[in-house]
Amino acid sequence: MLFISLFLILVMVFAYAKGVNVFDEFILGVKDGFLTVYKIAPYLLTMIFAIDIFRSSSALDFFINLLGPFAEFFNIPREILPMFLIKPLSGSGAIAVLTDISRQYGIDSKEAKIASVMMGSTETIFYTLGLYFGIVDIKKIRHTLLVALIIHFISTLIAVYVVCGIK
Predict the structure, then answer these.
(1) In Å, how far are 33, 59, 91, 135, 155 from 63, measured between CA atoms?
(2) Cα separation, 24 vs 103, whole angstroms
(3) pLDDT tens track for 37-69
(4) 156: phi > 0 → left, psi -120 to 50 → alpha, else beta; which?
(5) What is the distance between the alpha carbons of residues 89 and 91, in angstroms, rounded to a whole number?
(6) Which sequence ranges are marked TM in the entry (predicted)?
């Protein structure tokens, strides 16, 4: 806390020495922040709505059943498939899934450990693409989605093998 206070004082002293009006610059920064929120809000709200529909419908269960044999082939526990499917869509949704897995199987279970490693080592792909590509008006994502999904799968395999060991 002391470091932050000293840093702020140093910034204000330096700004004063350079003749910068700190208050006016702060107001401009806040204004730019609101403009950024205004620009990303449609993309953010669209992603939240789509994720809510995915979780509320039976689509999640359908994909878990569809991926079951595939996961078994790669020794991925079926119990972490909800994390595998939700994490590319939503970080907060993935936290909810991680919490559910931890409650159901215990925090020291292999399922909770794998889900925890996945939480820290995979990305919210569709959220990131929708938000960041949308805000800079990139319409053609080319190979970004395919590569991101391949990396998500590889990260999941690594999480399983780090926690469980290679079979």
Answers:
(1) 38, 6, 19, 30, 19
(2) 49
(3) 888 788 778 877 877 787 788 888 899 999 999
(4) alpha
(5) 7
(6) 33-54, 114-135, 141-164
